[in-house]
Design a protein that fits this description.
Shape: elongated
Strand content: 15-25%
Length: about 500
C-alpha cells in the first residue's frame, strides 16, 4: 500500500506575497510527512505543490491523470484560492478527488491573532470557495473535515484512500472465465460491454481445455512443494492424498494461467468440468487467500468485486471472501443466516486453523471427491456486497451484518461456513435485499465498510444502496423509486 501515492495539492494565490507562500509550502510538506506517520494512513501522501494559477492547476491535474503511481488527489486550501482557477484542472481530472477541509493550527491563538495571522490562515474561507466549485461542476469528490492530526479525519481519509485503490484496481482488472455461466441463472448474467465501458473490467472466456492443458504440464516436484505448504498451514484431515494432490495441480495451473494473461479474478462452474476430475475447491480457496477474486457458477461480477475488495483492504487483516446465502435459522428471537458454498470460501475469514477434507460432491461431474478447506468463520461486524445489472445501469447493494460463532457445530456439513445476524433484523433485511434485487452471491468482508464501498460506487458513478440498522422499508422503497427516475435521466 505504501507504494501507492496520493498527491497533496494546496491551493493559494499570489495575492499574499512570497513570504506567505513559502510558509504555506513548508506547512504543507510538514503536514504530509506527519500524516504519513499515522497507522491510519495506508498509502503515501506526497506533497506535490502549492498551486496559485489556473495554468499550474491544469498542468498538475494532467500530470496526475497520466502518472500510474498516483491513485488520487487530496486538495486543501490553506489560504483563499479563487475557485475559477480550478475549473479547467478539475474538469480534466480523472483520478479520485478528496477535498480535505482542515487547517494547520488546531486553535485560534487569543493573543497572537491579528490581520497577518488572518491572511495566512484562511482555510475556512478557502474551503467554502473550493467547495462551491466542486458543487458547481457536479464533480464527485470526498469531503473530509477535521483537524489533520486527529484520529477521526485521518481514519476517514485513510478509508477513502482504500476506496480509491479499488478504483485503480477496477480500471486495470481482467476476469478470466473458465467456461460459461451456470445455465438458466439470471443474476449472474450481465452486459460485459457496458461493464467494461463503466468499470473498465475486461471479462473474457477461456476454454476449460486450455486449463486442463496447463494442468497436464505441472510436475510432481511442483506438487510436492505445494503439498508441504498445505501441511504447514492446515490440518490434513483426510487420507485421500491423491485427491489433495489433484487440487494442488489445479491451483498451480490456474495461478500460472491467470498470471500469464494478467487476470486477477476468475470464475468456473460445476456444469463445465470437461477433462477435469474435480471442481477446484481447495485450489480456488487458496487463490482467493492470495488475493485473486473468485465467482462460482460463472458469476464474473462477484469475482471482480471480490478482487476489488481484497485490493482495497490489503493489510487490514480481517479477511474477505466469496460468499453465498444458503439457509436461514428462523427460531423466534434467534434468527440467523448461514452462508457457505459448495467448496469455495476464502480461508482469510477463518476463526481457527482450517482443515483439509475430501468428501463427495453430489453436483457436477466429479470423478473424485473434491478436497476443500473446512472451517468456521470468525465473529465480528462485517458487510456483504452484491453488484447487479439492472439493465442500463449497475447497482451495488451493501448490507451490514454481525457474524457470530455458529450456534451449532453441523458435524455433517463438510464446507466452510459463516453465520450472521443481518441488519436491521434477519427478516426485514432479507425482504430489503430481495426488494433491491441483491444476488445470492456476495462478497463478505470483515474489513471493508459500507462507507468505503459507497465511496467506491460514487467514484465509479454507479448506483449504491445501503441496508443498515436504521434502514426502513418505507425509506428504501422511496430511495429505489427516486433512483429509477434519476438514473433514467442520466
Amino acid at each position: 500500500m505504501k507504494n501507492k501515492q496520493f498527491w497533496f495539492v494546496v491551493g493559494s494565490q499570489h495575492l499574499y506575497g512570497p513570504e506567505v507562500l513559502e510558509t504555506v509550502a513548508a506547512r504543507a510538506a510538514e503536514m504530509a510527512a506527519k500524516m504519513n506517520d499515522s497507522p491510519l494512513i495506508p498509502c503515501a501522501i506526497v506533497y506535490k505543490a502549492t498551486v496559485k494559477t489556473c495554468e499550474e492547476i491544469t498542468a498538475l491535474m494532467k500530470e496526475a491523470n497520466y502518472d500510474d503511481n498516483c491513485y488520487g488527489v487530496i486538495t486543501w486550501c490553506h489560504t483563499f484560492s479563487p475557485s475559477k482557477m480550478w475549473i479547467n484542472g478539475l474538469e480534466l481530472l480523472q483520478k479520485p478527488w478528496c477535498h480535505f477541509a482542515t487547517q494547520y493550527n488546531r486553535k485560534i491563538p487569543n493573543e497572537e491573532i491579528d490581520m497577518d495571522f488572518m491572511n495566512l490562515n484562511q482555510a475556512a474561507h478557502g474551503d467554502r470557495e473550493h467547495g462551491f466549485i466542486g458543487a458547481r461542476l457536479r464533480k464527485p469528490r470526498k469531503i473530509v473535515m477535521g483537524y489533520w492530526q486527529d484520529e477521526g479525519p485521518l481514519k476517514e481519509l485513510g478509508l477513502w484512500m482504500r476506496s480509491a485503490v479499488g478504483v485503480a484496481e477496477s480500471r486495470s482488472l481482467k476476469v478470466c472465465r473458465f467456461g460459461d455461466n451456470m445455465r438458466n441463472v439470471a443474476v449472474t448474467e450481465g452486459d460485459k460491454v457496458e461493464v467494461q465501458r463503466k468499470l473498465d473490467w475486461q471479462v473474457n472466456t477461456w476454454a476449460v481445455g486450455d486449463l486442463v492443458k496447463e494442468m497436464n504440464a505441472i510436475t510432481d516436484a511442483e506438487i510436492d512443494a505445494l503439498m508441504a505448504e498445505y501441511a504447514q498451514k492446515y490440518d490434513m484431515n483426510t487420507d485421500k492424498v491423491e485427491n489433495v494432490r489433484y487440487q494442488a495441480r489445479e491451483e498451480i495451473a490456474m495461478k500460472r494461467f491467470l498470471d500469464r494473461i494478467g487476470a486477477k479474478a476468475f470464475t468456473n462452474t460445476f456444469e463445465d468440468l470437461y477433462g477435469m476430475e474435480q471442481l477446484p475447491g481447495l485450489a480456488s480457496q487458496r487463490l482467493m487467500e492470495q488475493g485473486y477474486g473468485y465467482g462460482g457458477e460463472g458469476d464474473w461480477k462477484v469475482s471482480a468485486m471480490t478482487r476489488i475488495v481484497k485490493a482495497m483492504t490489503e493489510g487490514m487483516g480481517g479477511g474477505s471472501a466469496f460468499m453465498e446465502d444458503y439457509t436461514y435459522h428462523l427460531k423466534e428471537g434467534e434468527e440467523y443466516s448461514l452462508g457457505a458454498h459448495m467448496l469455495e470460501v476464502c480461508p482469510s475469514v477463518a476463526a481457527d486453523k482450517p482443515r483439509i477434507e475430501c468428501h463427495h460432491l453430489g453436483i457436477g461431474m466429479n470423478e473424485k471427491d473434491p478436497a476443500r478447506l473446512v472451517f468456521e468463520g470468525k465473529a465480528g461486524p462485517a458487510v456483504v456486497a452484491s453488484l447487479i445489472d439492472m439493465g442500463g445501469r449497475l447497482r451495488l447493494i451493501v448490507q451490514d451484518i454481525e457474524a457470530v460463532k455458529p450456534i451449532m457445530d453441523m458435524p455433517n456439513l463438510p464446507v466452510a461456513r459463516v453465520m450472521w445476524r443481518a441488519y436491521p433484523d434477519l427478516c426485514t433485511g432479507a425482504k430489503m435485499w430481495i426488494l433491491t434485487g441483491g444476488a445470492h452471491h456476495t462478497v463478505l468482508s470483515y474489513d471493508a465498510t459500507a462507507q468505503m464501498l459507497e465511496d467506491w460506487a460514487e467514484m465509479m458513478d454507479i448506483e449504491y444502496v445501503h441496508i443498515g440498522k436504521e434502514t426502513t422499508m418505507e425509506g428504501l422503497k422511496q430511495q429505489l423509486l427516486l433512483a429509477d427516475l434519476a438514473w433514467k435521466l442520466k
